[in-house]
Amino acid sequence: MSEVSFKNLIKVKESLDTCFKCSLCKGNCPVSEQIFWATFSPRGKMLILRSLLRGQGTLTDRVRDSLYTCTLCGNCDNTCIAGISVTDVLAAGRRDLYEARKAPESVNSLISTIKESGNVFDLTKEDMDILGLNPRMKFSENADLLFFKGCYATYHSIPNESTMRSFNLLKTLNVDFTILEAEECCGSPAYLLGDMDTTKRFCEYNVSKIEETGASRVVTACPGCYRVLKQVYPQLVGTLNFEVIHITELLAEYIDEDRLVFKKTGNDKLDVLYHDPCELGRHCGVYDAPRKILESIPEIHLEEFDKNRDEAKCCGGGGGLTISNPNLANQIAQLRLQEAEEKNIPTVVTACPACQLNFSASKDKYNMKVKILDINQLVGSVKGL
Ligand code: SF4
Ligand code: SF4
Hints:
Blueprint: H1 13-18, H2 42-53, H3 61-68, H4 75-79, H5 86-99, H6 105-117, H7 125-131, E1 145-148, H8 150-155, H9 157-172, E2 177-179, H10 188-193, H11 196-213, E3 217-220, H12 223-237, E4 243-246, H13 247-256, E5 270-274, H14 288-296, E6 300-304, H15 321-324, H16 326-342, E7 347-350, H17 353-365, E8 371-374, H18 375-381
Parallel strand pairs: 1-2, 1-3, 3-4, 5-6, 5-7, 7-8
Helix pairs in contact: 2-5, 9-18, 11-12, 13-14, 16-17
One iron/sulfur cluster is lined by residues 29-31, 42, 70-76, 86-87, 314.
């Protein structure tokens, strides 16, 4: 116990002391819907951390599992009657555990991989060539807009396809943009798992590379990259010389400017449910832009999940849960997808590669019929452009 300094938890002591133990935060927690042990609920996690900070608890394997059995989705923040940011407390607890080398082995292993290879998939640029993931197009050297791809879109074929469609769309719209040839992980996974040193290292590297290009806007299709670039980087290195936007915000802007117009094709309408990614929605407040895009496509009829916008349920793929408990991550996704099947809506659209991959894994595992699309895949395949 004394081996952990709790220097991060001390900073959120007031939140821990304020907790009423009312358990309202459990109401929309995706983990509590699957695991009924009180120690795995947000309230349970708060009480565990409070005990540890007061020197009254024991750091058992179950305690460590509880802290990392969480998607950091932020639904508990949204429902806490006392206005506590439970996720800030959980993040502080993870940092203390990681820094004291008490994080679960799966967490340490992923962070080692990211540190060594610069990406979460442990792949090299040569692997990308072999896998055919490198974009076959030329980029400007001095464009004002820089597309930050992120690990998922760079190294995994499914998000890579979505991002290539975004690249093609931007080219079709005559948008001058560039990419970082030597981009490294944005640092989001390390941030979520509690390793702030690695987060800072990636932050400093990427910021210096972006600044070398002179770009004034950085667009990304990954909400994890988006959040960490927009919210965390300024905390680590001060005000950035560039603006950070999500691809859905950029496309919504082009729709407002009549640069992006979807024409009627006469095809039947496709019913879709839009899933708000936690990192993009609850954590960054981007709800309208993706809906504006979907509502602008004449072939699309947009429907809503019962829980949407700031109440949207998590896909299960956040907070490192796919590493610490992949089965649970898939079960959480299944519950979300089940609603689409019950509503008889054939397609779920999201705006996040992590949601797209976790939903797809769950769909395959549970043999579900619903189709999973990233919004860029959908926009890039629309006939009426
Ligand atoms: S962040 Fe999400 S998964 Fe974690 S405790 Fe809160 S509601 Fe549950
Ligand atoms: S809702 Fe807020 S006050 Fe109530 S148990 Fe959860 S964290 Fe504590």
